[in-house]
Design brief:
FAD/NAD(P)-binding domain; seven-stranded mixed sheet
């Protein structure tokens, strides 16, 4: 039985494994190879790693874990989980079962792209969901914000920190209130309510949005604030209840209401940056190790008293 099973090998999972490996804990990291930022060309906002290819950063993390013999990484998908008798049992896609005293879920979320034909070809290079991650690269460019709701309006206003060449593209008649329209108008953010026919560009670089009425909007990027869903349902299988945003609430040091279960990274936070995910992984690891120390001390005391 492992001390800890970590599901997910992004910044949160790998940093937790690093801290726990240095604590000489038996750790199994399960990684099914689907990171949230797979389409991204570069990681940003992470000091000493700003501009690094996310794949390179994950490879460096795995390489560092090779120094610690108690940490095992397996390319496996965890399909089910249960907690019985103060231990967790995870079922892998192969049918194999693995057990641990603690579980850290670092499975992240999946972004649902806007329903625009061909948008996948631009995602990660000129179509983005996070201005803190990718806004600087489009400073002072013509930027379109996709959506016709309050979050889209808020995103458009937020992006004024990076550019003043902004437009809100609603892909059809907007359902905006007069107050929302006024807020945009005050910041010279135009509203385009035509249906989108396609995106124009090449090699992932956006050049314009072509509308169904024959007009177009020149722009170098599209930002959206779309829906997200949990990449894994293991938290719910273990008894956690997501909040109204789909996130799984956690308390101090990423602990859940389920004893021994922790969730770190994007699956539990509205501020979703790689450096924050890595920090949460470390925080969870410290609390887990503290609990393991108390367990080990109690076992030693019982043995010594015999």
């Amino acid at each position: 039985m492992y001390d800890v099973i970590i599901v997910g090998a992004g910044p949160a999972g790998l940093n937790a494994a690093l801290v726990l490996g240095r604590c000489r804990r038996g750790v199994l990291v399960l990684d099914d190879g689907h990171p949230r930022n797979a389409s991204s060309r570069a990681l940003h906002g992470f000091f000493t790693r700003d501009g690094t290819d996310p794949r390179e950063m994950l490879a460096l993390g795995r390489e560092e874990l090779g120094r610690y013999p108690t940490v095992e990484i397996r390319a496996e998908h965890a399909s089910d989980a249960r907690r019985e008798d103060n231990r967790f049992t995870l079922t892998l896609a192969t049918g194999e079962e693995v057990e641990s005293a603690f579980v850290l879920l670092a499975t992240g979320v999946v972004d649902e792209l806007p329903p625009v034909p061909g948008i996948e070809a631009f995602y990660g290079r000129s179509v983005h969901h996070c201005p803190y991650c990718d806004g600087w690269e489009h400073s002072d460019e013509a930027i379109a914000v996709y959506g016709d709701n309050e979050p889209a309006v808020d995103l458009a206003l937020e992006l004024t920190a990076w550019s003043r060449g902004l437009a809100l593209v609603t892909d059809g008649p907007a359902r905006l209130s007069q107050r929302q329209r006024k807020r945009l108008r005050e910041q010279d953010i135009a509203i385009y309510e035509q249906r989108i026919e396609r995106l124009r560009g090449r090699d992932g670089t956006l050049e314009a949005i072509a509308f169904a009425d024959g007009t177009s909007l020149t722009c170098g990027a599209i930002f959206f604030r779309g829906k997200k869903r949990q990449r894994s349902d293991l938290a719910e299988r273990l008894g956690c209840v997501p909040d109204e945003t789909g996130m799984v609430p956690t308390g101090k040091y990423e602990a859940t209401d389920i004893p021994g279960l922790f969730i770190a990274g994007d699956a539990a936070r509205s501020i979703q940056l790689a450096i924050i995910a890595a920090s949460e992984g470390a925080s969870a690891a410290v609390l887990i190790n503290d609990a393991l120390i108390k367990r080990d001390l109690a076992r030693y005391a019982r043995h010594a008293s015999r």
